[in-house]
Task: structure prediction
Amino acid sequence: MSDLAEKVRKLRTQKGLSREELSNRSGVSYSSIRRFETTGKISLESLLQIAMALNRLDDFEKLFSIEDTPKSIDDLFKNE
Result:
């Protein structure tokens, strides 16, 4: 989770957003954003709200995509 929090922090700063601005855009409290960026702890709902505010919600759709999901261990290594 701390790696994810660091990626979100970097994305936020690349977009020139302060924690307060991200809080206003996402609806997630400033303290929750600060806690997430320092500890990696956040609720799924808040993480999704932050992703939406940073225009990265599509990344979550890819996370559980079923189109290319291997059916077995052997399927993982077929294309190698």
